[in-house]
Amino acid sequence: MVKQVKCPTCSKMAEWSTDNPYRPFCSERCKQIDLGAWADEKFAIPGAPLETDGLTGDSGDKFSPPPKSLLN
What we know:
Strand 1 and strand 2 form a beta hairpin. The termini are far apart. By secondary structure, the protein is α+β, with helices and mostly antiparallel strands.
């Protein structure tokens, strides 16, 4: 007997087996909806805020090109 689980997106029952490439989702559509929610930051993993390191551009500083003396 194959285990059945509720799809996290639509709550339909989905097969939990290697025959279901979308598990725990019932379909590719539900899997994509969930991925989109993560991309839109509707979900988050709790934790301390990340500190900026000056390399990501989060600090608000504008990029300035290197001096011409370094480019030659």
